[in-house]
Each structure stands twice: as structure tokens, then as C-alpha cells.
Design brief:
heterodimer; A: Glutaredoxin; 7 helices; elongated; B: alpha/beta; Glutaredoxin; Rossmann fold; Ubiquitin-like (UB roll); 5-stranded mixed sheet; 24 helices; 14% strand
Chain lengths: 164, 580
């Protein structure tokens, strides 16, 4: 599943956007990830050649930072906030409920590749805790029993788009 | 956008901004910071826009940042000529048509406003911005003034002075509230050394948590013998439970930009960076727009305000690493490397970013600068308390009634924050602890609530000020579980460079797992304490150096809970599932 066809032109355009500057490696990786939703191996090899940075260095950076993923993610990225306010107000229960509903543990992707569940350090929405971010949207004041409904909405959206 | 070259140009823009802040027709303003949007502010805004369009209403619709009353979001303000500004809370898209009808009719009979603002005395220049003139109708009189609300009474807003008052995307509104006049003042009439002296005299200390005197940092950087220097803004705000800097970056980006330009001029830097964490996309947008506007207006770039001074800045985005809040790790990240801290004896003011002198301050520190320049060091030093001048922004969250963002003078007691501003603990529960300082901080028990809030007192209490997260915990929180939570956090965020931090924190977390899961043994607490000391002694950076704090502070104040877990295999708060 890690095989994904990358566009050489796309990667080169991204590198060019930052004038090939080595210091822009993180921004470049962010742009690549935006394109493919993860960092494909072939893209990293190509970056290494284009930027003249050893692949080991690129690997170091892409495994150091939490927001990079070396494996493909699902259609929707669910990020459970693990901030202190969320922890105090029931965040761990939200996380376990999501894990049991999706039948995966944090860091994994569902078999149908619909959802990837990850933990995020703190979304800075502490006043609305506990919160979960799905793609770009923050869901606030969550309780365990709201979770199946939220997941179902995303599934439904997908089913409906599939029918069209 | 026309270039601003002089005081006259700036004054003209101020007039334009005033016309936008106080238009001659009705204006409806929606609080659209990240937290507002999460509670539906975006949907409310869309519903308002749709209805205004449908009914062809002559109403201006605008956006603003976070005024701090997160417990009431989404918030919508109505500003009408010669009437007080009224704030409505908890608005939903469904209620919009009814709400607009009320606005058009000019009454407050249906949905009652939460509070009103008659006038606002700007902290930066003491000018009064008056919303209403003359007598108020009886029903408006019945709406409490914002300054009379318990949540607001004790607050003094310096760093967050414009949040919730201006549209962050409108530079003229920032100027109308005294913005960029301090920059004009320093570039036209102050020598760099004078500015540094002013900041030293003000007593401002770094608001990122370290509390290092800002003026002295600037001085060291200015004196460093290198041609090229940098100023950097730390907008990484990694502490869980904290979102002060997010609010400032989203709600008032120009206050940070102006502070940095002033700092750059004082230090002799021509390049700057704002490092923002990946989790804050709205802050990145607001700052990017702010920077490009400032550039168009000639407030960034070559020959700023026609003074001959050149300075420009870029945004660096984080990629999700708590340790990058540490200055040397942050600089490594800006250079495109993994964010590993290095030894502190090499000072970043001499050898920082790309090994050049670099002055790094946090968002809140930078946002204070324009006000200090405008009002003077003497005035600033009268706010707060000796050696701890000014205010501090806190995110007051967790199990507290009025959850929100507050800015209070240093020296206020924790009890005042929790009881008066926060309104106490909801659901009739009992207060247990206040967690401050993020993973580097500690838990403060109720016996210590009369402590005055400042850098030194909180450290003495075994916690620390940190960047400003205040998480209130009630009887439903287990303090052993909280300690385990923080160690779990630090375990995965340790960069792995120093063995005591990488291995020690992991082992300590293992011991806490055992205690929480019923495998605790006599002597575990002593073992945790001795391991803590080893980690403190053997780590390069503050992440490791303070990592054991959550454990040590809970052992100190809540030893009985550890004992109950270990000896009786019982979790008094009923959190640790294996012990229930």
C-alpha cells in the first residue's frame, strides 16, 4: 500500500518554490505531504537528489516531527487532542471510544482506509475540551456517546458522494 | 495599500480605521478565532451574511478575534452609532433571523445581550473610544457593563488589548487603536540604546515562561560583535492547556509584528522570523496577511517609515514537536533540521540561528513592547509587583465555571483567579489542584491558593509560571494519573539526545503505570524521587531539566493519593480503571 505513483514534476516544482534551499526542508516536506497525504518513499528519494541532501537526513527530519507520516493515511484524519484540559475533561474516554468504534488503535488506519486515528499534543482549543479534529474541523465539548454519530456523518458523506 | 511615510500618513490611516471601527451604520461583528469557529461562529457568520443579503439589509458584517469569554462562545457584537456596543453570546445559525430582526428594530427585547461596552479607554495612549453618547434606555442600562462582569473586573489587558476589538485582517483598525505609533516614535526620535534602556527599566520579563529580563537579552544581542543578527518570535506554544499566543497571533497579529520591528531596530537586526506551530493554521494565515499588509504599507521592507531602517520577516512553520518551544531546538527547526536542543552555555544572543546573534522572545513579550514604548517604562513598572512588572495572559481551563482567556496584573492571587474571575468549580465539586507551567510545571494544592501569581512565587511552590496554561482540577482528577499523563507526554516528546531524559522519563512512566494499575510497591515513591534528581541533573535542556516536576509536585502535595494507590490498591478519585 506504500506504493504510490509520484509526479516528478510536482516534486521539482515544490523544491523550486523554495529555491532548493536546504533550510526549507521542513516546508518542502509539508508541501509534499499536502500533495500525497503522507510522505511516499519515492518522493523522499527524489527530494534527496534534487536538494542534494542525504536521504538519511531527510529520514531523520521526517521521523522527528509528529506531523509527518511515512505510511498512507485514510481518507479522513482524526486527531484526538491529548492536551491537559482535554485529559482532565474526559479525553482518554473519547480516545478509547474511537478506538473501539473504529477497531484500531491510535496511529492506525481502518481496513477500509476511511479513517486514520492519531493523537495530537494540544490543539489549543482548551476552553472547549475535550476536542477532536477531523480533517480541518474541530468538534467541541465531546462526550463518548457523540462519537458514533460523528463518524457516521463522515461515512454517510462518503457514501453519498460515491452514489453521485 | 498606500505607503505610510510619516506621522501624518499614520494619522490619516488612523482616521480610516476609526471610520471602520465606528461606522455610521450598524455593524455586526462575529468572534472568529479558532475556538469561536469550533463552537459554530463560522456557521453563524454565514447565516448572518446570507440573511443580510436576502433582506438587502444595510448592515456591515465583520470578524474579530477572541475577547476571552470562551465560556460564552460564539459571540456576536452589535455596534450602532451612538449606542453602546452590545455582546450577544451562544448564538446559533437558527437564531440568526430573529436576532437580525431585533437588531433592525433597535431593541433588545428578544435575545438579551450578555454585556455592553459604553466606552473603552485604550491602554496604549489613554484615548477614549466612545461607543455611546448620552442617556441609555432602561433596558440597555439593565445589561451589565463588561467591566462589571466578574470575569472582567480584575483584568488588565496589555498584550491582548485589541483581541475582540479589531478585525485582525484590517491594519487600519489596528492603527486606529494606537498601533504603529510606537514604531513611528522610536524610528523618528529614539536611539537603539534608549529603547533598550526603556525596556530594561520597564522590568518586562520573558512571557514564554523563563522570565528572563527582556531588555538585558536585547542588550546582549545588540552588543554581540556580528554584522548580521536576527530577531525571532516564538509562537510554538507547545504547552498543553495553553492558547494565549494563538489568540494574540490570530486576533492581533500586528501587535507582534510591530513589537518585532521595534526590537529589531533596537538590536540592529534586519531579518526576523516568526515560528508558529503546525497546529495553528489560522494564526499562520493571520500573520501572513499581517506581514504582507505591513510590507505594502512600508512598515516592513526597505526604508521603514522613511527612516532609512530596513527590516523584513518570514514565517517558519513547525511540524509538531513540543521540544521546538525550546529556543535552540526552535532555531534548529528554522534551519530545516531536527529540533534537538544544544547546551545552554553557548548563548543564542551570540550564536543562535545559523550561528549568528539571535534574539528570541515569545509572542506575548513582543505584543507588550508597543505599549511599553508608548506609555513608558515608569508606567509599566507600576503594574503588577516589584520584580514582576506588568500583566500575564493565562488560559483558564479545565473544571472551572468561566473557562477562557484572561490577562491579569502580576501579583493577583490564584484564589482571585479561580473564585472571582473563574467563578469557582462547577457542579458543586471540590477544588483539588491547579496545574500551571505545562509539563514543566506542577500541581498547586488548595493550601497554596493565596500565593501571588508571579515568576518567583510559582517556582517556589514547586510549579512554574510557564507560558500561561492554568488547568483547574477538581475531585474527579487523580493526581497520580495526572503525573503519569505528563510523563507520557514528555516521553514521546523527548528528542532523545540525553539518556537520562530519554530513558529516565520512560522508566518513571513505567513505575507510574504500575502504581495506577495496581502493581505499585513500597519504595516506588522514593525511587521516583531519586530518578527525578538524576534526570534534572543529567539533561541539557529545560524539557528534561523540568520533566520530573509534575511527579515531584504531586508527591509533595498529594502523597496520600500515591499511598492509597500503592498500599490500598485504591484510586480515591475513581480514575484509574484497574483499581475500581
Amino acid at each position: 500500500m506504500n506504493e504510490v505513483s509520484i509526479s516528478e514534476g510536482e516534486i521539482k516544482t515544490i523544491v523550486k518554490k523554495y529555491h532548493g534551499e536546504k533550510s526549507a526542508l521542513i516546508s518542502i516536506l509539508q508541501d509534499v505531504q499536502r500533495e500525497y497525504a503522507f510522505l511516499p518513499k519515492d518522493a523522499l528519494s527524489l527530494l534527496s537528489e534534487e536538494m542534494e541532501v542525504p536521504l538519511s537526513k531527510i529520514y531523520e527530519v521526517s521521523t522527528f516531527y509528529n506531523s509527518f507520516s511515512l505510511v498512507p493515511r485514510g481518507k479522513h484524519l482524526i486527531e484526538v487532542c491529548a492536551g491537559t484540559a482535554c485529559h482532565v475533561k474526559g479525553g482518554p474516554k473519547i480516545r478509547s471510544r474511537l478506538e473501539s468504534e473504529l477497531d484500531i488503535v491510535c496511529g492506525e488506519t481502518t481496513e477500509d482506509r476511511m479513517f486514520t486515528l492519531e493523537e495530537v499534543r494540544c490543539l489549543g482549543c482548551c476552553s472547549l475540551s475535550p476536542v477532536v479534529k477531523v480533517d480541518g474541523d474541530i468538534h467541541a465539548y465531546l462526550v463518548e456517546d457523540k462519537m458514533p454519530g460523528i463518524l457516521e456523518n463522515y461515512r454517510k458523506e462518503w457514501r453519498e458522494s460515491g452514489e453521485n | 495599500m498606500a505607503r505610510i511615510n510619516s506621522l501624518q500618513d499614520l494619522s490619516k490611516r488612523k482616521e480610516k480605521g476609526m471610520a471602520s471601527l465606528f461606522p455610521s451604520k450598524t455593524k455586526v461583528m462575529v468572534g472568529e478565532a479558532t475556538c469561536g469557529i469550533a463552537t459554530g461562529a463560522g456557521l453563524v457568520y454565514n447565516a448572518l451574511a446570507e440573511e443580510i443579503e436576502k433582506q438587502k439589509l444595510d448592515i456591515i458584517l465583520s470578524k474579530t478575534g477572541c475577547i476571552g469569554m470562551c465560556y460564552r462562545e460564539p459571540l456576536v457584537d452589535v455596534i450602532e452609532p451612538k449606542r453602546p456596543r452590545v455582546t450577544y453570546s451562544n448564538l446559533t445559525p437558527k437564531k440568526v433571523p430573529e436576532f437580525l430582526k431585533q437588531v433592525i428594530e433597535g431593541n433588545i427585547k428578544g435575545k438579551k445581550p450578555y454585556c455592553r461596552i459604553d466606552e473603552d479607554v485604550l491602554i496604549i495612549n489613554r484615548e477614549t473610544e466612545r461607543y455611546c453618547n448620552g442617556e441609555l434606555s432602561d433596558d440597555l442600562k439593565a445589561v451589565p457593563r463588561i467591566s462589571d462582569i466578574d470575569f472582567y473586573k480584575k483584568q488588565v489587558k496589555i498584550a491582548t488589548r485589541n483581541c475582540g476589538y479589531i478585525d485582525p485582517a484590517n491594519i487600519d483598525e489596528y492603527i486606529a487603536r494606537g498601533g504603529y505609533f510606537s514604531l513611528q516614535k522610536v524610528l523618528s526620535s529614539m536611539q537603539p540604546e534608549e529603547i533598550i534602556e526603556e525596556v530594561i527599566q520597564s522590568g518586562l520579563r520573558g512571557r514564554g515562561g523563563g522570565g528572563f529580563p527582556t531588555g538585558y537579552k536585547w542588550q546582549s544581542c545588540r552588543r554581540a560583535p556580528e554584522e548580521i543578527k536576527y530577531v525571532i518570535c516564538n509562537g510554538d506554544e507547545g504547552d498543553p492547556g495553553a492558547y494565549m499566543d494563538r489568540s494574540v497571533m490570530e486576533g492581533d497579529p500586528h501587535s507582534v509584528i510591530e513589537g518585532m520591528i521595534i526590537g529589531a531596530y533596537a538590536i540592529g537586526a534586519h531579518e526576523g522570523y516568526i515560528f508558529v506551530r503546525d497546529e495553528y493554521p489560522l494564526a499562520v494565515d493571520a500573520l501572513s496577511l499581517g506581514i504582507s499588509q505591513a510590507r505594502e504599507c512600508g512598515l516592513l521592507g526597505k526604508n521603514i517609515l522613511n527612516s532609512g531602517f530596513d527590516f523584513d520577516m518570514k514565517i517558519g512553520k513547525g511540524a509538531g514537536a513540543f521540544v521546538c518551544g525550546e529556543s535552540t531546538a526552535l532555531m534548529a527547526s528554522l534551519e530545516g533540521r531536527a529540533g534537538e536542543p544544544r547546551a545552554k552555555y553557548i548563548h543564542t544572543v551570540e550564536h543562535g540561528l545559523w550561528n549568528r546573534p539571535s534574539n528570541l522572545n515569545n509572542v506575548e513579550t513582543w505584543a507588550n513592547i508597543p505599549v511599553i514604548i508608548a506609555r513608558g517604562a515608569e508606567w509599566f513598572s507600576t503594574i503588577g509587583m516589584e520584580k514582576n512588572a506588568g500583566t500575564k495572559v493565562f488560559s483558564l481551563v479545565g473544571n472551572i465555571r468561566n473557562v477562557g482567556l484572561i490577562e491579569v496584573p502580576m501579583g493577583i492571587t490564584l484564589r482571585e483567579i479561580i473564585s472571582d474571575i473563574g467563578g469557582g468549580i462547577p457542579k458543586g465539586k471540590e477544588f483539588k489542584a491547579l496545574q500551571t507551567g505545562g509539563p514543566s510545571g506542577g500541581c498547586i494544592p488548595k493550601e497554596m491558593l493565596d500565593l501571588p501569581v508571579n515568576f518567583d512565587e510559582l517556582s517556589k511552590a514547586g510549579s512554574m509560571m510557564g507560558s500561561g496554561g492554568m488547568i483547574v482540577m477538581d475531585e474527579t482528577s487523580c493526581m497520580v494519573d495526572v503525573a503519569r499523563y505528563f510523563l507520557g507526554f514528555l516521553e514521546s516528546e523527548s528528542c532523545g539526545k540525553c539518556v537520562p531524559c530519554r530513558e529516565g522519563v520512560r522508566r518513571m512512566r513505567g513505575i507510574l503505570d504500575d502504581i495506577c494499575e495496581g502493581r505499585g510497591r513500597e519504595g516506588d515513591v522514593g525511587l521516583l524521587e531519586s530518578m527525578s534528581q538524576a534526570i534534572i541533573d543529567g539533561s541539557l535542556c529545560a524539557l528534561g531539566g523540568t520533566a520530573p516536576n509534575p511527579v515531584l509536585s504531586t508527591i509533595k502535595s498529594f502523597r496520600d493519593e500515591y499511598d492509597a494507590h500503592i498500599r490500598e490498591k485504591r484510586c480515591p478519585a475513581g480514575v484509574c480503571e484497574e483499581l475500581i
